[in-house]
Amino acid sequence: MQIHEIYLLSKWYTSNVQSKNPQSFLSQCSNGIKQHIHNKAAANEYITSCKAKMLNFLSNLDITTLTDNQRKCLTHLNLDSLLLEKAPEHFELLLSLANHDTNYVIVTLERYQILYSEASNSFSQCASSLQKIVEPELLAPIDVHEGKVLTRVTFHNDASINNIVEFNKWAKSWSFIARGFSMASGETPESFEIVNTDRGSFIIDLLVGAGAMKLFFEALKSSLTYQYLSLI
Fold it and tell me: Quick one: which of 148, 128, 150 has its CA closest to 139?
C-alpha cells in the first residue's frame, strides 16, 4: 500500500466518518436500551432512532473513491461491515435482534463504538503526522503523463522479496512477461515504465501507451497470459 493511499484514506475517514461521530448514535442507542431494558416500547424508540441515524449516515457516505488497498485496510480494522456496501444490511439485521437477544445487541453496539473510536484515533494521527514525517510528493498521487495509462499488476501469495535469490527469480519473471507483451504489441520494452513498487504481495505500477494497454488487458483475458502468470 502506497503512502499516499494511506494518507488519502486517513483524510477520507476524518472528513467523512469521524466528523459524523457515528459512535455517538450507537452510544445513545445502547444506553437507552440498557435504561429501558424492561420497557420494550421505550427501548424500541431508541432502536428506531439509532437505526434511522445510522442508515442516514451510511447512505451519505461516499465509498466509491476507495481503492482495493484502502478497503483492505478498513477490513483489517474490522470496519468493513460498519462502513462498506454491506453495512446498512448489517445494522438492520443487528438491531432487529434486540427483541430476541437484547444483551447481545448492547454488547455488539459497545464493541462497535470502540472500533470507531480506535480508527478515529489512528487515522487522526496518521493524517496529521504523515505531513511532518514524509516529503510532500510522497503524499500526492502518481502523475500520469499525457498519452500514458497507469495500471497496477499485483502478484499475490509468495511474491514478497526477502533476499537476493527471490529478487533474481522475480526479476526474471517480470522480464519474461513484459517481453511477451512487447512482442505482441510491437512496442519496445522501454514502453513499459515501472513507476512504483510496493513490498509484500508485490505490486507494480506501469505507465504504457494507451494502445499497448488495450492489448495488455485483452491478453490478460487470454489463455496465453494465464500460462505466463502460472509460471510465477
Answer: 128
The tens digit of pLDDT for each residue in 89-115 reads: 999 999 888 778 888 989 999 999 999
What secondary structure letter does DSSP report for 31? H
- Pinpoint the alpha helices (H) of the chain: 3-16, 22-35, 40-59, 68-76, 80-83, 87-96, 102-133, 164-185, 210-221, 223-230
**Distance spanning both ends of the chain, measured CA to CA:** 21
What are 152-181's pLDDT values in tens digits?
A: 666 665 566 666 676 677 677 767 766 766
Render 137-193 in DSSP notation, one character per residue. Answer: GGGSPPP--TTEEEEEEE--SS----SHHHHHHHHHHHHHHHHHHHHHHT--GGGSE
- Say if CB 105 and CB 51 are below 8 A apart: no
